[in-house]
Amino acid sequence: xxxxxxxxxxxxxxxxxxxxxxxxxxxxxxxxxxxxxxxxxxxxxxxxxxxxxxxxxxxxxxxxxxxxxxxxxxxxxxxxxxxxxxxxxxxxxxxxxxxxxxxxxxxxxxxxxxxxxx
Length: 118
Known about the structure:
Elements: E1 4-6, E2 9-11, E3 16-17, E4 22-28, E5 34-40, E6 60-67, H1 68-74, E7 87-94, E8 100-102, E9 105-108, E10 111-114
Parallel strand pairs: 1-8, 2-9
Antiparallel strand pairs: 2-3, 4-5, 4-6, 6-7, 9-10
């Protein structure tokens, strides 16, 4: 069985899922980065499909780029330009070819956190 990758975004300032937030997934390599997915979160703050499904999964180093600034502007939380948080990159490694990796983002206009979820 192959592994897979999921993510979700919670708006901790408003206490709700971050709907409509764009997320781009890259695979990192010595020869250059490859964009693998470009998705938008649904009403539950999740992508409608796995951001990296089992049939495309490979171990390696990846980066999720969360387009927080666009979301914060749309939700009225942005403040003045330049924004404190605009794009939030999270670079991480996946080394188990059969594991489910879950990389969520907890977001507010002035801070964020992440962890390996389940």
